[in-house]
Amino acid sequence: MYLSWIYGEARVSFCHAAKTVRLPLKSINNGSADEQSKGSESLLLDICKQATPPCRLNPFLFNGHLQTCWTAVKITDIPIHYKRKVFTSTHQTYQGIFAVDFVVPTPPAPQPNDPELPERTHFFTDEEFSCLGGDDEKPMLIMLHGLSGGSHEIYLRHVLRSLVSGSEWEACVVNSRGCARSKTTSSVLYNARATWDIRQTVEWIREKWPHRRLFGMGFSLGANILVNYLGEEGSACKLDAAVVICNPWNLEICNLALQQSLIGLKVYSTAMGSSMKALFERHVDQITKNPDIDVDKVRKSRYLHEFDRYVQCPSWGYPTENAYYRDASSMDSVLAVRIPLLAIHAEDDPIAVDTAVPREEIKLNPNVVLCSTSLGGHLSWFELGGERWFARVASAFLKQIATGVDWAAMSKRTDIANGDLREQSKTPSYDPMRRKLHGASLPGM
Question: Can you tell me the mean pLDDT for 150-154?
Fold first, then answer.
């Protein structure tokens, strides 16, 4: 560990099933027009390892706290431009609106910022939006941001830059309700298992672009939501593969860890609580239509768990914040994932703590690989120069999966690795997706 501090060299390790799923690869042309080698196969683990370079980080940021706190330093900018579309939710229970920001080419001339939207974001005109669709076969990435964030977040744009800069990929960001200066029309914001908006977005995109390969990526709380979505969809998932970064996995363990350390409580929990309170104030007129929410208690709260106690619990019917954390956590959902999933995690992450990672569950699912590093912090992994190591891993993995896998052959696969884990289990009475939240028509209930 001492040498790691000096040189910024982080240990990289992988957690996975004894035998990960085999993915069929595209045939390789050997040079002759009528000679083409038969497509081979590659283990998901091998693809993950090939996409993972050595982890050499900034030696001056030699622990998780320094890495994490450095995210607050604004030293670089990555100009990604978006057009926003506001969707009306089709969910019978969780009605309202939500905003999806689509990455668009850099305009030829600078455009004035819309004061109602984040920087470099503008609304689609009706004509622009009506022109979307067609037979475009570009792979598309659908992203979920972290707590109270949005499409403007710099950690998210680090990945987008490497994918969309060459116009070979398309991408969009599903903003959680009320985030990224989006409006709300209901008394609820979102929670850590709010999968209905990502589900509607994926289904809309699949219908709009039937020939595209679709991929998902989630950061922090968005990673937790994405894994819950993958588990709920199971074998019917319309995404082809996914990446999650700094998933908190077990929210109860993560929040207890925050409360048990001075820096966790006074710095991280306070900062996250403040960001959620700011979100609350922007939408207070809508949220307080729920008579069970005590505005004075919300405004006097200091920490994230207090905010969840006074807002999330009365919004969703949970008796305590810990009941909410247990129900919304994705550590069981990972058992039901049926598409290739790469999870990237730093063992010194002070927010998505290492003790919350469900390594034993991951070892039971051949579709999932966990890549862990000994250094990196939360959504950080800063290298010398300001680049983020995780962005190189995530983009390399997605590119290899998108261009190297034989998707026609993949669609015909019926091997057990892509089957239903519940059917394979010796204890069929256990269903990892039997969620506890009632009153909603969620898959798996």
Answer: 96
The CA distances from residue 42 to 26, 139, 157, 183, 428, in Å, are 11, 20, 30, 45, 30
Task: Write the CB contacts of 158 (distance below 8 Å, at least 6 apart in sequence).
Answer: 78, 387, 388, 390, 391
Q: Which of 101, 308, 348, 349 is catalytic?
A: 349
The answer to whether the CB of 246 falls within 8 A of the CB of 379 is yes
Cβ neighbour number for residue 102 with a 10 Å cutoff: 21
CATH code of the domain occupying 2-17+40-107+119-250+329-409: 3.40.50.1820
Which is it for strands 341-346 and 241-245: parallel, antiparallel or unpaired? parallel
The mean predicted confidence, pLDDT, of the chain is: 90
For residue 220, indicate whether it is catalytic. Answer: yes
Reply yes or no on whether 16 is catalytic: no
Q: Which is higher by pLDDT, 31 or 257?
A: 257
Per annotation, catalytic residue among 220, 269, 301, 315: 220
- Cα–Cα distance, 108 to 169 (Å, whole number): 20
CA–CA dist 121, 124 (Å, integer): 10
pLDDT value at 221 more than 50: yes
How far is residue 98's CA from residue 190's CA, in Å, rounded to a whole number? 10
**Catalytic: 167?**
no
Helices vs. strands in the chain: H and E counts, helices first: 19, 14
Catalytic residue of the set 152, 378, 380, 395: 378
Each residue's pLDDT tens digit, 87-124? 999 998 889 999 999 999 988 888 899 999 999 999 99
How far, in Å, CA of 168 to CA of 287, rounded?
41
Residue among 353, 357, 375 at smallest CA distance from 16 = 357
Distance CA 277, CA 284 (A): 10
* pTM score of the predicted model: 0.92
Q: Is the dihedral of CA 275, 71, 52, 251 positive or negative?
A: negative
Q: Where are the alpha helices (DSSP H) in 219-283?
A: 221-233, 251-259, 262-263, 270-282
Determine contact, residues 197/177, Cβ cutoff 8 Å.
yes
Domain ranges within the chain, ordered by starting residue: 2-17+40-107+119-250+329-409, 262-328
Residues in the chain, total = 445
Query: What is d(CA 160, CA 120) in angstroms, rounded to the nearest whole number?
Result: 14
